[in-house]
Specification:
This protein has 354 residues and is of the alpha/beta class. Helices cover 42% and strands 15% of the residues. Helix 1 packs across helix 3 and helix 11 packs across helix 12.
């Protein structure tokens, strides 16, 4: 067995003595307080590094009212979360931003209705500083259960227009969908179908609206609702081919469904893009480049969306702390302190499928 160290852990008093400052000054620097001259700040930081001092998190929380932890709540079952590259990209962006601010990520999933109460109790228990919530469905009770918890949403909530302190990060879903369908029209395609995402989510509704903006006279039979999954794309493509075997293009509301559509088109002997052009949405690299054929799609910067969600939450928490408010500032009704929501642009990425 390795030999156990008997050296005592460095104390805040030892840091203060090494830096030649009072314990109160050392505490303010270690806990991120203000009002300490920069030369003293540098001396304390150097002493912390030399001694290997690690702050007592429980004591630090009493001073700062911060836990340096953020909950990431995904309103989907784990089978969906771990099978969809979208969530991995968004979590990577969130993790990078939280790590840069020395904050921990706590992942919470909602498998079913019973989980909503569990998640709400955890968030209300003061274990984290705030929450990042995404993939909400329109009937999801979670927003009502976590009122009072600083929150930033991934995607525009269907129950809010962005006012009343609700903060979210989204992409231009409707504009991106319009660009995708215009591209297909520009290729000379006239029988364009659409595979929607789950229509209890605003992203799917907005992408359907973008499709209809361009195809104002589209046959209702050329639109099939699906669920943002690979299997859902396969089922929808089969239904479309059974209904309209003469279709010559498909716009799928995400890349997974587009990949499912490509698989079925291959099974049915339909050449892509010669007979049927296919466009997706998201641009989840390297998934889209490795599709057969490589997928033309609408790109949203998923990782950047995650980073922005975390950044907005942390900025709101810092603003609330500097104003002396412990639990307000982001998405909980404190509109005067909340950062503005962000909608990122999208771009069409052309590859071999259309």
């Amino acid at each position: 067995m390795p030999e156990q160290s008997t050296q005592p852990r460095p104390t805040l008093e030892a840091v203060a003595a090494r830096a030649g400052v009072s314990r109160a000054t050392a505490s303010r620097v270690v806990n991120g307080g203000e009002g300490v001259r920069e030369p003293l700040v540098e001396r304390v930081r150097q002493a912390v590094e030399e001694l290997g001092y690690v702050p007592n998190q429980a004591a630090r929380s009493l001073v700062t009212r911060r836990h340096d932890a953020v909950a990431v709540v995904i309103a989907e079952p784990e089978t969906r979360v771990f099978a969809d590259p979208f969530f991995a990209l968004q979590l990577r962006g969130i993790s990078k931003e939280l790590t840069a601010h020395d904050s921990q990520l706590v992942l919470l999933l909602t498998e079913g209705r019973d989980d909503h109460a569990r998640v709400a109790r955890y968030l209300a228990g003061g274990h984290v500083d705030g929450a990042l919530v995404f993939s909400l469905h329109l009937d999801d009770p979670l927003p009502g259960l976590i009122r009072g918890v600083p929150t930033v949403y991934g995607g525009r909530p269907g129950w809010s227009d962005g006012s009343h302190g609700v903060v979210y990060v989204d992409c231009d879903n409707r504009g991106g969908a319009r660009e995708a369908v215009r591209h297909l029209v520009g290729l000379g395609r006239t029988r364009i179908a659409h595979i929607t995402g789950a229509l209890d989510q605003t992203s799917a509704v907005d992408r359907l609206d973008g499709f209809r903006d361009v195809r104002t006279d589209a046959d209702p039979g050329m639109v099939v609702e699906s669920d943002f999954t690979l299997g859902g794309g396969e089922r929808a493509m089969r239904e479309l081919l059974d209904r309209r075997p003469d279709l010559d293009a498909v716009f799928a509301a995400n890349d997974l469904m587009a990949a499912g559509a490509l698989r079925v088109l291959r099974e049915r002997g339909r050449r892509v893009p010669e007979e049927v052009a296919v466009v997706g949405f998201d641009d989840m690299l390297p998934f889209t480049e490795q599709a057969d054929p490589p997928l033309t799609t609408v790109r949203q910067d998923i990782e950047e969306m995650g980073r922005l969600m975390a950044r907005l939450l942390l900025r709101g928490l810092d603003r609330a702390a500097s104003a002396g408010v412990a639990s307000a500032g982001v998405g909980d009704g404190a509109a005067e302190a909340a950062p503005a929501s962000v909608v990122l642009p999208t771009t069409l990425v052309r590859r071999a499928s259309a």
